[in-house]
Each structure stands twice: as structure tokens, then as C-alpha cells.
């Protein structure tokens, strides 16, 4: 609804004015925050700031537009539901979080999307869209002093009311293993496994990052960039894919304000059952927890982090994104000091964190199976 | 119109381009601030060279290049690459096999050495051949349940008919299962070599240094028996409406594609159609199509158009993801917009907007190493002038509303549309 017009600008005026510069604007929502971004030629930066400031306070939420957008978002959800891994992920999140809102799909359930009123949306907007509840991040070719004048000009006059936040209690650790099954029309078996991860500002998070790198390959820091680093030398790829049990595996560790999850996503081959895959996976995790991190593994994980960080600086959109993302759960130095923080992690730290978080009793396992038993 | 400072743009005086005696060509443009290097290139062999009954052989061969070389078996190869935080990937398209990668700049010599090994001396290990056969079987099953992929394959079947482009690059389960390891080795021996290889670099190393490094490593590659890929067969646009719906039960969304013929990337019409396409289904929130299908009707999360930039026959498509019950309504809305597109010229404002956007996108597209490399390869693939970007403003200036209308009418024949969809039964 933030792209449907304000008191000062029509939706089309905002959209076309930015597009005309060759730039682009969009928004995306994580469980913790909503980000609006514009990437424009530096000559159009004032225009971008004017629109963002206006969007913060003057959006209309026209009732007719609300109804149109409702069907668009339902369509987005229907597109996601076409993917069995989306459905599996939704089920695993519900099980991994009993009380914390991280259990809810960001897009919302179909039922919620059908029932949300214009007043619900506008109330959310007026409560959370406040200067004191926002971070503005800029990266690119400009002089900071001049830009700050523009920031003050467009954002300085916006009154800031206090945001009423319901602070969720952090989710307790997963104390007993859960295994859930989802049956569907697809012919392929999928597995998703979730372990609890610490909040991103927790000292253990950096060691966890290296655990992920060694087990399933490093997560890319490139939200807006090109490619990441492969994971074919990771322990789980070697033992599950190269050994011919699974068709693919990747991991994902997200930085979040509250404790979140480290997830593994496995696509099974049709000549091996999910149970066979899980049996081997358990062995790999056991070996990891009972063994040691080799100096080579440690060095490789650090070098990969160093390279990931270099790639992440390749474009200005990604630079601004990471400054804002880090600010949401810690402060921007979390990102600028990223490589140094990882370098301070010892091999013992990696094992200690792995043993604390990755015990089999502390995980949720979701399996998608073909309904016809293929 | 957006102002671009053409003197600062890449052009003949600062793009490095050189062809070597073995037939390979290097393009490079520096990005001094970058601590990394990104490269992408291609060898002129793709699924066009798949023998009859062996569809998928080019794609399978490309996949085998990442399974180990004669010097380094699978795990050693990937440990070497990944331990540097680098990447190298290879895949086959219709006309070429594309490779790409990135690394920290100090690691480029080593990574280029591994790239040469992968391209010229793959190990073709039987174990990994068998593994990939099984993995491909899984991929085919996943694709068969993917509405976008199935709509796209149905579209290509209808649109390209008996032209090789009608086949998916990956092949079919029944053809891939007949491809032997020896077939792959023969295909590699026949078609892989430095002749026609193109590679583009951008990153924190001077262009001359990068090129010299490439020459030092790749000049040793000779392949005297390298065959030239066959010429693209002729193709004529059909003259009737065609429609196919692929039934995939239990899908909550149907993917839809409506298309017609399009000019080749090198033709005089291409730039005109590109501006027209932007108005039709790209500009702002997916252009006129997005406005009609998404914004005004609320029928789809995505509804847009695309104009392929390719050699040989290409297509101009409108696509959308819709609720199954809204499929016919979405088709009608799209046809209404297509009719408007060929009935009346675009407005002066619309044309001014997309021209301004096309120029404004230039500096943004060049802000990353990958963006620079994409531009360099386009120059080579479509035989464009190295000064293309500097000449772009003058070129765009000559395009009028009437030119776009003429092209719209030339390519969009509403009596011979190809309509493909995939989702629940109709």
C-alpha cells in the first residue's frame, strides 16, 4: 500500500519519476523489519529522499486500492504455495517457534490476507512508520555534508510519535526433537531441518557463521549482488550429495534480532528415502560434534568470509542494505567489523557453539513426501 | 531526458579487446575500487549441436566440467576453488556454453588456471557421470511440477515447432537417459576449444594485466579438431493462433505466456522494440500490462513483458501468474493491451520516459563488476560498436512514436498469438 499514492504524489507519479531517472525502487519485509530502497543516479538523490519522506507520513491507503492489493498479495501467496518447499518451510517455522512471531510467514496466511481491514493496515502504518523508528542508509557517490542538509530538509520536520511495540519474549530453546511430515502431489522428497540460532548481536553468532560455513557452505552476503561461494567442499555436500544420497543441499543462517534458526534444505533423490538421508546426516553432525575442526577448515571458512565481504561491497545497493540491516539488530559496525569478528573466533569456539546448538534433540525436522508414496 | 556524461562511459579508448592466434577474444574494463574480479565468457557450442535423440548432451557436458579435471578430482577441485572464496560455474545455453566466476583479485591467476583445466581437460569420472544422471532425473521431476517451467516449455514447443529452439536445453528424461559417458567425451572433443571463445573481465586489476594473464594461461590451449557449430536453421513465424495448457494438479497459481516473434538482437528493429517493450510491460510497475492486470484488476502479483535479445529467432512475450479461475480474464486483459499497442502510437510522454530510463540505467548497470562484464559480452555477442553506450543517446533520439507503432504492428499479429499456460485443469 506504500506504493499506491500519498497526499502529495500519485502512485504513478512516484513510480514513473524514479523509473525515468533509470533508477528503481522497491520494498521487502523480513520478520524483523520492512525496508524501502531506491537506487538512483546521484543526480536524482533528492527526488528519492523527497518520496521516501513523503511515504513515511502521507500514504493514503485508499479503500479501493486496499481491495485491489488484497487480491494481488493473495496471488503472490498462491504463487509461493505452488512450491512445496514454501509449504514445508511454513510448517517447520510453526513448529520451531511456539510463541514468537517468527513462527508466522511474513506474507501472512490466506485467512489473514482475506480478513485484514484497511484500518488494520493504516493502524500498523501510523504506529510503526515514525522517524524515531527508522534508519536511513545511504551509499554511493555524494558529499555527506550536502546530503545531510537534504535529509534534514525532508525528514527533519516529520513529527515522531512513540511507537507502541509488543516486544515478544524470546523463544526458548528447542528441548525435544520434532519430526513433521507433509504430503503433497509432487514426486520429490524434500527435507528441512531447523536448529535454534542465537540472536545476531550475541557473541556466539560469529562462531555459528563458521559452523554453517564448514557444514553447509557459507551464506552469501550479497542480497543484491551476483553469486555466492559454492558449497561442494562442505561436509554435508560431500556426505549427502557427492555420496549420491541427495540431489542438493544448502544451508541458511539469518541474522535476526531475537534467536532464530539455522536451516538446512535438502532435495532427496528418488532412489533414496528421506530416512536414509537423515541417517547419514545424523552421522555427519555426530562426527562434527564429537570430532574437531581442522586448521584447514578454519582457515578456509575465514578466507570465504573475507571474499564474501569483498563481493558484498561490489554494488552500492548492497552496501546500503547491509548498513541498515546491521543497524536493525546491532549497529552498522557489526557489518563493517564483520571479517575482524570472524577472525577472532577460534576452532574451540566453533566446536563449543556447534555442541550447544546442533544437538539432535534441539531440532525440528520437516519432510515433504509424495502423497502416492513415489 | 537523463543526462549521461558520455566521456566517462566505457568506449573504444578504454575498453580492452584483443583476439589471440588461437581464436579466443578477451574484453576487459577496470574497476579500480574493487578488491575482486568477476569474469564471464562463452564457447560457441550449445544445445543447437545436440544430436537428434540426444537432447541435453551440451548441457550434460557442461555439468560434467565441474566434476573434476585430469589433474584434480572432484573434491580436490572444489576445495581449491572454495578455499579461496572463489567460484567457477559452467552451463550450456542454446548457442553457447557459458562460464563465469569471481575471486579476490590476488587469486585470479590460480582461478584462471583451474578454469582452463575445467574447459580443456575435464576428467569425465564415471562415478560423477552416474551421479549426475540420477540428479537430472530428480530435476526433471521437479520441473514437471513447476508451472512457470512447464508453461515456458509449452510455449517453446508451439512457437519454435521443428526448430531446435523448441527443445529445452536440459533435454528430456528419455533423451538424457540414452546419453553415455562416451557421448559426452566425444561431444567435448568435437566442440570445445579456444576458437570463438570470448571472455570478459572486470575488477580491481588493470585491463592489460588481466589480458596478459589470460594470454599466458590460455595461449597453450590448441584444439585443431574443434568443430564449428552448425548454422542456425531458418525459422518462419507461424500464421495461426496456437494454445496449449499443461495440467499440473493441485497448483494454486497458473503461469501464462502469450507471445509473438521478435527481432534479433543485432537487427535495426531491436532498439525500437526494446523501447516499445518497456512501455508495454516493464516501465515503472511493469508498464501497461502491469497497470491493466495487476494495478487496475488485481489479477496477478506479476504481469509483465519481455523481449529476448538473442541471435536467430527470438520471441516477444507477455507473462503473468494468476489464479486459475482468472486465467481467461487475464488473457482478455492482456489482449486488450496488445490491441491498444498496435492500434495507436504510444504517447510522447511514454516515449520520453522510456528513453530517459534507458539512458539513466547506463551508469547504474555499470556500478558492479558483473554489470560491466554483462555489457562487454553484449558488445561482442551482438557485434556492437565499442562506443555503443556513447552513441546510445543519438540512436535513441532518432526513434519516434510512429517507429514503435510500426514495429508493434510488424511483430504483434493478434490473429497468430502463441498462448501457453500451466496449472490446474481448465
Cα radius of gyration of chain B in angstroms: 23 Å
Question: Low-confidence segments of chain B, ≥5 residues, pLDDT <50?
Answer: none
Relative helix content of chain A: 40-55%
Which chains make the largest contact? Answer: A-B, 71 and 70 residues
Task: Could you tell me the CATH topology label of the largest domain in chain A.
Answer: Cytochrome Bc1 Complex, Chain A, domain 1
Q: What is the correct CATH architecture of the largest domain in chain B?
A: 2-Layer Sandwich
Structural commentary:
The complex is a heterodimer of chains A (374) and B (426). With 374 residues, chain A is α+β, with helices and mostly antiparallel strands. Chain A folds into two domains: 11-155, Cytochrome Bc1 Complex, Chain A, domain 1, CATH 3.30.830; 178-370, 2-Layer Sandwich (Cytochrome Bc1 Complex, Chain A, domain 1), CATH 3.30.830. Chain A has helices at 11-20, 45-57, 63-81, 84-96, 110-115, 118-128, 144-155, 204-216, 235-242, 274-290, 295-312, 316-329, 333-336, 338-343, 347-357; strands at residues 24-29, 34-39, 178-184, 190-197, 246-253, 260-268, 363-370. In chain A, α8 packs across α15 (347-357). The radius of gyration of chain A is 22 Å and the shape is globular. The model of chain A has no long low-confidence stretch (mean pLDDT 93). Chain B has two domains: 9-218, 2-Layer Sandwich (Cytochrome Bc1 Complex, Chain A, domain 1), CATH 3.30.830; 242-423, Cytochrome Bc1 Complex, Chain A, domain 1 (2-Layer Sandwich), CATH 3.30.830.10. Chain B has helices spanning 57-64, 74-82, 108-120, 126-144, 147-160, 173-176, 181-191, 207-218, 269-281, 283-295, 327-343, 348-365, 369-381, 388-397, 401-411, and strands at residues 16-19, 25-30, 36-43, 87-92, 97-104, 198-203, 242-247, 254-262, 300-307, 314-322, 418-423. In chain B, the strands form two sheets. A six-stranded mixed β-sheet of chain B has the order 1-2-6-3-5-4, with helices on both faces. In chain B, strands 7-11-8-10-9 form a five-stranded mixed β-sheet. In chain B, β1 and β2 (25-30) form a beta hairpin. The mean pLDDT of chain B is 95.
Amino acid at each position: 500500500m506504500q506504493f499506491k499514492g500519498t497526499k502529495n504524489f500519485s502512485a504513478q507519479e512516484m513510480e514513473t519519476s524514479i523509473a525515468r531517472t533509470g533508477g528503481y525502487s522497491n520494498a521487502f519485509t523480513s520478520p524483523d523489519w520492512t525496508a524501502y530502497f531506491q537506487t538512483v543516479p546521484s543526480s536524482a538523490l533528492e527526488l528519492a529522499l523527497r518520496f521516501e519522506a513523503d511515504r513515511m507520513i502521507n500514504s493514503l491507503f485508499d479503500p479501493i486500492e486496499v481491495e485491489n492489493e488484497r487480491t494481488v498479495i493473495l496471488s503472490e501467496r498462491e504463487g509461493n504455495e505452488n512450491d512445496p518447499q514454501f509449504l514445508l518451510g511454513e510448517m517447520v517455522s510453526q513448529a520451531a517457534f511456539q510463541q514468537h512471531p517468527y513462527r508466522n510467514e511474513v506474507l501472512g496466511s490466506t485467512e489473514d490476507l482475506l480478513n485484514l481491514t484497511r484500518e488494520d493496515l493504516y493502524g500498523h502504518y501510523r504506529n510503526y512508520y515514525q522517524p524515531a523508528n527508522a534508519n536511513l542508509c545511504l551509499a554511493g557517490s555524494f558529499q555527506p555534508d550536502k546530503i545531510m542538509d537534504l535529509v534534514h530538509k525532508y525528514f527533519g520536520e516529520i513529527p515522531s510519535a512513540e511507537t507502541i511495540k509488543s516486544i515478544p519474549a524470546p523463544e526458548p530453546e528447542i528441548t525435544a526433537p520434532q519430526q513433521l511430515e507433509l504430503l503433497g502431489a509432487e514426486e520429490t522428497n524434500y527435507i528441512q531441518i531447523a536448529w535454534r540460532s542465537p540472536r545476531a548481536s550475541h557473541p556466539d553468532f560469529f562462531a555459528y557463521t563458521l559452523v554453517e560455513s564448514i557444514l553447509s557452505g557459507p551464506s552469501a552476503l550479497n542480497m543484491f549482488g551476483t553469486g555466492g561461494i559454492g558449497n561442494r567442499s562442505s561436509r554435508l555436500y560431500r556426505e549427502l550429495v557427492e555420496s549420491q544420497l541427495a540431489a542438493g543441499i544448502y544451508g541458511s543462517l539469518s541474522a535476526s534480532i531475537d534467536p532464530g534458526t539455522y536451516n538446512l534444505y535438502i532435495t532427496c533423490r528418488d532412489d533414496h528415502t528421506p530416512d536414509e538421508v537423515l541417517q547419514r546426516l545424523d552421522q555427519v553432525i555426530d562426527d562434527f560434534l564429537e570430532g574437531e575442526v581442522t586448521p584447514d577448515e578454519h582457515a578456509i571458512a575465514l578466507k570465504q568470509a573475507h571474499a564474501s565481504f569483498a563481493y558484498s561491497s561490489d554494488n552500492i545497493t548492497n552496501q546500503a542494505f547491509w548498513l541498515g540491516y546491521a543497524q536493525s539488530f546491532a549497529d552498522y559496525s557489526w557489518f563493517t567489523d564483520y571479517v575482524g569478528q570472524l577472525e577472532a573466533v577460534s576452532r574451540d569456539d566453533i566446536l563449543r557453539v556447534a555442541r550447544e546448538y546442533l544437538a539432535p534433540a534441539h531440532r525440528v525436522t520437516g519432510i515433504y513426501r509424495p502423497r502416492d508414496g513415489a | 531526458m537523463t543526462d549521461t556524461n558520455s566521456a566517462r562511459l566505457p568506449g573504444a579508448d578504454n575498453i580492452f579487446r584483443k583476439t589471440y592466434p588461437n581464436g579466443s577474444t578477451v574484453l576487459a574494463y577496470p574497476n579500480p575500487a574493487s578488491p575482486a574480479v568477476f569474469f564471464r565468457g562463452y564457447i560457441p557450442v550449445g544445445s543447437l549441436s545436440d544430436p537428434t535423440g540426444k537432447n541435453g548432451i551440451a548441457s550434460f557436458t557442461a555439468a560434467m566440467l565441474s566434476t573434476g579435471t585430469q589433474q584434480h578430482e572432484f573434491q580436490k577441485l572444489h576445495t581449491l576453488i572454495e578455499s579461496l572464496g572463489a567460484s567457477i560455474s559452467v552451463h550450456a545455453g542454446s548457442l553457447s556454453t557459458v562460464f563465469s566466476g569471481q575471486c579476490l583479485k590476488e587469486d585470479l591467476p590460480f582461478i584462471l588456471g583451474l578454469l582452463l583445466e575445467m574447459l580443456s581437460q575435464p576428467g569425465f569420472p564415471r562415478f560423477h557421470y552416474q551421479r549426475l544422471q540420477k540428479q537430472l532425473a530428480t530435476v526433471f521431476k521437479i520441473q514437471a511440477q513447476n508451472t512457470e517451467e512447464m508453461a515456458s516449455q509449452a510455449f517453446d514447443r508451439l512457437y519454435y515447432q521443428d526448430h531446435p529452439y523448441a527443445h529445452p536445453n536440459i533435454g528430456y528424461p528419455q533423451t538424457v537417459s540414452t546419453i553415455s559417458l562416451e557421448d559426452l567425451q566425444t561431444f567435448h572433443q568435437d566442440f570445445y576449444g579456444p576458437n570463438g571463445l570470448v571472455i570478459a573481465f572486470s575488477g580491481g586489476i588493470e585491463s592489460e594485466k588481466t589480458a596478459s594473464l589470460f594470454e599466458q594461461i590460455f595461449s597453450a590451449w590448441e584444439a585443431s579438431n574443434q568443430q564449428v557449430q552448425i548454422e542456425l536453421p531458418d525459422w518462419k513465424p507461424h500464421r495461426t493462433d496456437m494454445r496449449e495448457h499443461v495440467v499440473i494438479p493441485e497448483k494454486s497459481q497458473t503461469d501464462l505466456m502469450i507471445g509473438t516473434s521478435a527481432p534479433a538482437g543485432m537487427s535495426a528493429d531491436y532498439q525500437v522494440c526494446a523501447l516499445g517493450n518497456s512501455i508495454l510491460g516493464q516501465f515503472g510497475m511493469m508498464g501497461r500490462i502491469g497497470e491493466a492486470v495487476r494495478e487496475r484488476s488485481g489479477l496477478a502479483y506479476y504481469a509483465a513483458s519481455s523481449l529476448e535479445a538473442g541471435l536467430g529467432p527470438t520471441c516477444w512475450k507477455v507473462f503473468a501468474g494468476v489464479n486459475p479461475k482468472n486465467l481467461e480474464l487475464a488473457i482478455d486483459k492482456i489482449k486488450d493491451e496488445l490491441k491498444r499497442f498496435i492500434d495507436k502510437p504510444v504517447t510522447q510522454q511514454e516515449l520520453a520516459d522510456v528513453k530517459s530510463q534507458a539512458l539513466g540505467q547506463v551508469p547504474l548497470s555499470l556500478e558492479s563488476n558483473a554489470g560491466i562484464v554483462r555489457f562487454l559480452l553484449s558488445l561482442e555477442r551482438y557485434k556492437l560498436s565499442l562506443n555503443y553506450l556513447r552513441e546510445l543517446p543519438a540512436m535513441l533520439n532518432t526513434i519516434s512514436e510512429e517507429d514503435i507503432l510500426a514495429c508493434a504492428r510488424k511483430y504483434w499479429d493478434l490473429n497468430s498469438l502463441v498462448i501457453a499456460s500451466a496449472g490446474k485443469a481448465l
